[in-house]
Predict the 3D structure of the following.
Amino acid sequence: MNQQPSTAVAGAAPTVWGTELTPSADEQVLDLLRSGIAHRFGRSGEEHYVAPPVIARATVERAGYQSSFPQLLGSVYAAPDGGEQALTDLVLPPAACHHLYPLVAGSTLTEPLTLSLEARCFRAESTGEPGRLRSFRMYEVVRLGPEPDVQAWRDEMLEGAAAWLTDLGLSAETVAANDPFFGRTGRLMARVQRSQQLKWEITAEVADDTVQAVASANFHKEHFGEAFEVADAQGAPLHSACLAFGLDRLLLALRHRHGSDVVERLTRTEAHS
């Protein structure tokens, strides 16, 4: 899936990197992964959602993504009334969790809330190495609540995710990480994120000599609570965290490790869970 596939029709144009189709055999693997994630990490969730392929530009701006990662964001242009195409009020979702925060914006939560979601995301990656897809699927579980609860939840989810991926036969390694913030201020934010251990990634080999993050567990502190005005009973911004799985990269890693036996391995692991 990470390599350019041979075209189905002789003479047809090759697939543009990062936009590959998913054959039915791979979709079967993805369904098993979805089931495994929901069973292990989504049981306490209030609701699970499937997101559309676009999101409001205002939501992404409110989340701070456009100012922090302008190099990765994809915009939607259209001409609904005819004439020249122009920028619209929609963008391509850069992260699945952004869809969830508007659901609780301006609300007061008296107890922790857990939601999950799958979304088709887009990031303008600058390289076409295996796993660096521009269009990809993310399955995220998000927790909102007071700081001690949220941080403990993040740590528990990180440990559980690493154990599960190891059970699947991957050489999973948990490493401190940072997001690719933009500019001089972004470099400072990246150092703070890493020094405070706000972001952890679980990496695995997705191709020969290519190791990438297949999952991450992130503690956002009160960033989204402040941005979307989600507060506790005393009016203090709530903290949030997320556990995120890159479904397409997980598929690559499992295919690389198990080849055609990946369905059997997933089925066997689920049967013993």
Observations:
- DSSP finds nine helices and ten strands in the chain.
- Confidence is low (pLDDT under 50) at residues 1-7.
- The domain at 24-76+85-271 is CATH 3.30.930.10 (BirA Bifunctional Protein; domain 2).
- The first strand starts at residue 47 and ends at 50.
